[in-house]
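Exercise 7. Given the components listed, write out the predicted structure of the assembled complex. Treat all entries as one system.
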Amino acid sequence: MSELLKVDKIKTEFQTEKGPVTSVDEVSFDLNEGETICLVGESGCGKSVTSLSIMHLLDRNGSVTQGSILFDGKDIAHAKEAEMRKIRGNDISMIFQEPMTSLNPVLTIGDQLTEGIKLHMKLSKNEARNYAIEMLKKVGIPRAEGIIDEYPHKLSGGMRQRVMIAMALSCRPKLLIADEPTTALDVTIQAQILKLMKNLREDSNTAIILITHDLGVVAEMADKVAVMYAGQVVEETDVYTLFDNPKHPYTLGLMKSIPHITNPDDMRLNSIPGSVPSVHNMPKGCRFYDRCPHAMKRCLEEKPELKPIEDKQAHSIRCFLYEKEEQEYETKHAEKEVSS
Amino acid sequence: MFQYIIRRILIAIPVLFGVTVLNFFIINLAPGNPVDMMVNPSATPEQLAATKHALGLDQPVWVQYWNWITQLFHGNLGFSYSTREPVTQILLAHVGPTVMLMGVSLVVGYLIAIPLGILCARKQNSWIDYLVTGFSFFGISVPHFFLGLGVIYVFASKLLLFPTGSMNTLGGDGGLMDTINHLILPVLVLATGIGGNMVRYVRSSMLDVLGKDYLRTAKAKGLSQFIITNKHALRNSLIPIITVIGIDIPMLIGGAIVTEQVFQWPGLGLLTIQSITSRDYSTLMAINLLAAVTVLVANLLTDILYAVADPRIRYD
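Answer.
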């Protein structure tokens, strides 16, 4: 498995009337071909902005100001719009959260579906139409030959999300970014859509960045997980390690706040006290300081870095509590490098 | 859809009937009557009474109305009180110039305004946006008579580039170029107003659409900005644009009364003013009726076009 995407310490800023606002800061993760990474975190922590940064789909006032995004060996963080147009929909495609508003209401499903196919695969009108019908069948849409000429308002939310998936996967992208694809759907449809995405992933070896705040979806789908808090990745590891051995106080807090079916009826769920700091007023040190049960004096002053520790799988944490483990890992790997 | 159109046409009949009733009685409420305007000031009261009797003007208003409407159903719009010509003939002579003037003005106004409106929305709050919205504000707020006199003063009277009015050079041999030459100034005045109004609707409607999720989807497909704007966004902002066109179209027939007067354009607008001053009720009634029919037809067309532009709108 070769490396497909390497996001390295990107910083995304928005120019506002009150001055520049940093929405995503030092976000790093990497992804191999066919792998699925989940970006998890609460609303406003920068998950969507991270994915929109990769696609260059930010609003006009937002841009990546630092860091690099290596896709297929090329840095696309500052790629020109014309280059991005060749990548979008072709190498990287995206599914959005709201299937009800993500399709153009005045164009037919077929029209919207074949646009990308004609553009990137250079098929003729007829070939594109037949291919689109095939794609619709693949995502489980009944009567695909009829549906292709319908307008989006005739379809339910789940059906529209299937159309979005067909659209996103039609040009066989290397990377699919799914921004909370199931949040707006009810639970049974959620399960169907996730199953569909899994099958398609197996068929075409597409890597997936799945954005969610649902740890159930993470357990179902992910190979790797990056937990985000206030615009930063605070912990990154594979999915088993995350659930078996979560380290960062924020991740631990999230785990405790999941309801379990075995919990007694009268048990109150844990919650993390406090709220996320505002983007206009980010603390100098650790961003989780205010809400962390283990906060120390130095957390207020110093900024923790995302550093790897020794575990069964690769596991990085942004917290001073694990400084000792991080140092051990560093010295051990430094020795290894010297000896090799 | 077909049933809907039939229903709309059937509803239009009583509406038109109401329009004629209101028209007839309101016109008859106005002081004075055609006879005062057409006879010699030295005529005796007996002569006046005889003329009134001959024209049927001594009968009660509702009898006059009855006579008028029964003649209307025979396709007869009556004779002009002032020129004694058949009203149908007068109307036909004036419809052409008005349709030409208004048609050209609408097309010119839209061709300039729609792209500018899209541009403004795309470059919201840039200098070009401020410039265009500023001009459109000017176009909407300047009265036509004032702008008309202004352009006549500058372009016709001082720079001698264009004629001051009318449709053809007096004593000239007419011809297309001559007409176009006469057309430019009134079109300039009318298109300024029409375009200024349209720019604002296109701009706000596009702004509304440009933030929509499905445009992000379109961009995520790798489409060019040109296709995103002109196919995906424009089609979604057509409803307000169609509404404005539907309101503008009756002007094709109703004419721009003030502008035609200022430029002495021989269209329905000028005819309206002449008919009012000469108390030519039969011509005035016919113009009003024609305007009412146009409004109803334009409204129906607007509703049909809504359904064409937006598949979510269905009339069944």
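Discussion: The radius of gyration of chain B is 24 Å. Chain B has two domains: 1-82+278-298, 96-270.
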